[in-house]
Design a protein that fits this description.
Blueprint (H helix, E strand, L loop, with lengths): L5 E6 L4 H13 L3 H4 L6 H8 L3 E7 L2 E2 L1 E9 L2 E8 L7 H14 L5 E7 L6 H6 L3 E12 L2 E11 H8 L1
Parallel strand pairs: 5-6
Antiparallel strand pairs: 1-2, 2-3, 2-4, 4-5, 6-8, 7-8
Helix pairs in contact: 1-3, 4-6
Amino acid sequence: MKEVRLEIKIMDSHNKDNLFDIYARLQEERRLNIFLYSDNSLQNFFNLFHNQWIYIPYVNGEIAGFTAFNDFLGKNAFFHFCMWRGYEEFTVDLGKMIFETVFASDSLENILGLTPENYKHVFPVLHGVGMKEIMTLEKACLVHGKYRNGVVSKINKNYFLSEVL
């Protein structure tokens, strides 16, 4: 079997050109409507991710997607991720690498996610990186003009380091 090199790099999210590159790739991959399900405008993307923590996963030196952390509450933050087509098989391994990097900085105690209930394809990934569903918020996600229930997931730093890695 061919050896695969996985790595994570931090992206400068203060630079709007970097953000635009991610936005353009989301467009190219036809994933804008999936990732930015309520407002997929460039301005909304900038508003969500400018000056936030963004990690870029690489597979054999090629950009494989991105993960962003925002909506910080003390030592908690929400995360968002998207893998580019052809790299989905590496999502869980890269997700664990990103979580390990974030938790090693000692800046966060918990990572949270809010996923539209009908995004069934996301839950195996969340479980794979150790996240647990903690509650459902009725009508929390505006998806293409319709409110959907959102599932809140969480992973704690100590649990991740002792049970998932």
